[in-house]
Specification:
283 residues, 8 helices, 2 domains, Cytidine Deaminase, domain 2, four-stranded mixed beta sheet, 14 strands
Length: 283
């Protein structure tokens, strides 16, 4: 079933319109422009703040669940017993807090490996306290599905029309989940690429979607964390519109995940586990 929240205009509060002085072809003029909102979002577990990320204030429940899953704070969405979003502060410092309630034993594990992630937009491992915390390789994927090059190309070609916020502001990343035929079923956007992927993972988990039956495409580069988050969600293929990093390749290879970069139109470069992509099926 198509995620109906993905259809239509960007969420209210995710962007704003303002007047700008614009120079085009040597001529100055006054015009209206739209900018994506970027606010601090605090994730609070059992009354204790754990992380603060700069994010677009939309789909924050999905973001909180996706972050909790990809960070290993919970194993399933059902382990988040309760959740509430509140707005805090006024003016430029205003933000949101997502209050999550989880089991006491899971909360105890957070305190043992607590990190301070306050940082830049979509900050990844800022605040990690030691090198052994910096890289977490997910367990190898089991029962990985095989997808066709045609399906990947179809999803990539459809991405632009699903980027409502990006289309209005030109300032956000998107992460989409497509079915085996390349039909886009779920999409999420954010000023931070990690955040967009966490929102998507949260949406899949909350919707009880069998994530491994499809694949993920992101509008950004594929760094280590993008691979780690995708594999932890049980998805065996990640395609990125931009390039990939060396560590992303290493983790993808170890995790059994097919990693493709420069996925544009019907073109792509496959860096790991090419056996999971049917090269014969042309777009």
């Amino acid at each position: 079933m198509r995620d109906l929240t993905d259809v239509g205009l960007p969420a209210a509060g995710a962007y704003r319109s303002l007047g700008v002085r614009s120079l085009r072809n040597g001529v100055w003029s006054d015009m209206s422009d739209s900018v994506a909102e970027e606010v601090p979002v605090a994730l609070e577990y059992n009354g204790v703040s754990h992380a603060v990320m700069m994010a677009t204030p939309s789909d924050l429940e999905d973001f909180a669940v996706g972050f909790s899953l990809s960070e290993g704070i919970v194993e399933t969405a059902s382990q988040v017993y309760d959740m509430e979003v509140t707005r805090d502060g006024e003016g430029a410092g205003a933000g949101f807090t997502v209050h999550l309630k989880i089991a006491s034993e899971l909360f105890a594990q957070i305190k043992e490996r607590r990190r301070n992630l306050t940082g830049r937009t979509g900050c990844g491992i800022c605040g990690t306290e030691s090198l052994d915390q910096a890289v977490r390789c997910p367990a190898p994927l089991s029962g990985a599905r095989r997808f066709s090059a045609a399906a990947i190309a179809r999803a990539v070609l459809q991405m632009r029309e699903r980027q409502q916020l990006g289309g209005v502001t030109g300032a956000t990343h998107a992460a989409i989940w497509a079915d085996a035929r390349g039909g886009i079923q779920h999409s999420r956007e954010d000023v931070g690429r990690h955040n967009a992927l966490d929102k998507l993972i949260g949406a899949l988990a909350r919707g009880k979607v069998a994530a491994g039956e499809g694949f993920i495409v992101v509008t950004s580069r594929a760094s280590y964390e993008m691979v780690q988050k995708t594999a932890s969600a049980g998805v065996s293929l990640l395609a990125a519109v931009s390039g990939v990093t060396g560590l992303a390749v290493d983790v993808a290879q170890q995790s059994g995940l097919a990693l493709a970069g420069f996925a544009r139109g019907s073109d792509m470069s496959v860096y790991t586990h090419a056996e999971l992509i049917d090269m014969q099926a042309q777009p």
